[in-house]
Write a structure and sequence with these properties.
By secondary structure, the chain is α/β, with parallel strands linked by helices. It has 13 helices and ten strands. The protein has helices spanning 8-14, 16-27, 39-46, 57-72, 83-86, 109-121, 135-139, 158-174, 181-196, 199-210, 223-239, 275-287, 318-335; strands spanning 50-55, 78-82, 97-103, 125-129, 142-145, 215-220, 242-247, 264-269, 291-297, 307-309. α2 runs parallel beside α8 (158-174), α9 (181-196) runs parallel beside α13 (318-335) and α11 (223-239) runs parallel beside α13 (318-335). The longest helix is centred in the last third of the chain and has 18 residues, at 318-335. It is globular. The two termini are 30 Å apart. The chain binds fructose -6-phosphate. Fructose -6-phosphate binds at residues 56-59, 103-105, 108, 111, 155-156, 233, 237, 349-350.
Length: 353
């Protein structure tokens, strides 16, 4: 039931703060120790020399963020693969691979195909899914819940942030990390709430930047490039504005030729190491007439930025940076008079290959 909300998507965007709290409550005890992950999962992953994350669409984008936690916090090399590609062109595997399937529905046929293949090869598997009694959770060796609650809107929002959080918790449980993740997730929840409370700001941005546009771009570097992919998917799938998300350094290798007077270019700027380079790229597209809309984090912000995000641990910034993009996609779609929850040609659960 969407209650007072006009669309499920808006309700599900708002639920993200609660989901972050729910996950912290489920996976940590009062002392801040991990309790929600069985020893068998950790023991099996610790024997692996490489993780392979398999997913599609938005879940694939969540995997691109999760990779960073497994590499930075758990020190395990991690690859992220599109299920439909991996299924028919399996790359050369490491000696002791461990497979993680990420899925909202747990029914995605492309991911199921890979799981079948991998099981036949005898490698250990874990599914991280929102629907717990699903094919992918039942058929993998291990399963961890995403606990986002039912997601009805075709455009995935809360499942994305929740999948990122579960991956962060799992990676954290495998390594020795300075951060107090439970406390940091409490902060994430507070800040998600603060961002979703500013809907009018994102409605204004969407209406002024996107209402009459045919194309748009999202750029970023590092984790912001991963979020740019998801931000672009959100915008294009419901508003039908052709949107590309990509690593900002690639602009000069081709895409910059698409910039015209007024082309909206959204820049996500939350990663300190590459902030200077990204500022340069924003200036380059602005010089060619782009309408640049920069969403930055507090310590990297400049006065002209369209929106300044509150700050949490830099590796967790995707959880905040994606929220404006979700809301901008929502309001751009609303402004164009389209059905936000049910975009044409798409199904919520893709059970065919
Ligand atoms: C986009 C979206 C899709 C799904 C994809 C995978 O908003 O919802 O891209 O993420 O079809 O679905 P799941 O996560 O159910 O495996």
């Amino acid at each position: 039931d969407k209650g007072a909300y006009p669309y499920y998507m808006l309700k599900e965007i708002d639920e993200q703060a609660v989901v972050a709290r729910t996950l912290a409550g489920h996976y940590f005890n009062d002392e801040g120790e991990i309790v929600g992950i069985g020893c068998a999962i950790g023991d099996t992953i610790k024997q692996a020399d490489r993780l392979y994350i398999i997913a599609a669409g938005t879940s694939y984008h969540a995997g691109l963020v999760g990779k960073r936690y497994f590499e930075n916090w758990a020190n395990i090399p991690t690859e992220v693969h599109i299920a439909s590609e991996f299924a028919y062109d399996q790359p050369l595997l490491s000696e002791h691979p461990f497979f993680i399937f990420l899925s909202q529905s747990g029914e995605t046929a492309d991911s199921r195909e890979v799981l079948d293949n991998i099981k036949r090869q005898g490698f250990p598997t874990l599914t991280i899914a929102n629907v717990m009694n699903s094919t992918l959770t039942r058929e993998a060796d291990f399963a961890l819940p995403v606990l986002a609650g039912p997601e009805i809107a075709v455009a995935s929002t809360k499942a994305y942030t929740a999948q990122i959080i579960v991956q962060a918790i799992l990676a954290y449980s495998l390594g020795e990390v300075e951060l107090d993740l439970k406390q940091e997730l409490a902060k994430v929840a507070v800040e998600i709430q603060a961002i979703t409370d500013e809907k009018a700001t994102f409605q204004a941005i969407a209406e002024s930047a996107l209402k009459d546009q045919h194309s748009a771009f999202y750029i970023g570097r590092g984790l912001d490039a991963a979020v740019a992919l998801e931000a672009a998917l959100k915008l294009k799938e419901i508003s039908y504005i052709q949107t590309e998300g990509f690593a900002a350094g690639e602009l000069k290798h081709g895409t910059i030729s698409l910039i015209e007077e007024g082309t909206p270019v959204f820049a996500l700027l939350t990663q300190a190491k590459t902030a200077g380079l990204l500022r340069g790229e924003v200036a380059q597209v602005a010089a060619r007439g782009a309408n640049t809309i920069t969403i930055s984090s507090k310590s990297l912000a400049r006065p002209d930025d369209a929106y300044v995000l509150p700050e949490v641990d830099e590796l967790l910034m995707p959880l905040l940076a994606v929220i404006p993009a979700q809301l901008i996609a929502y309001y751009a779609t609303l402004a164009r008079g389209l059905d936000v929850d049910r975009p044409r040609n798409l199904a919520k659960s893709v059970t065919v290959q």
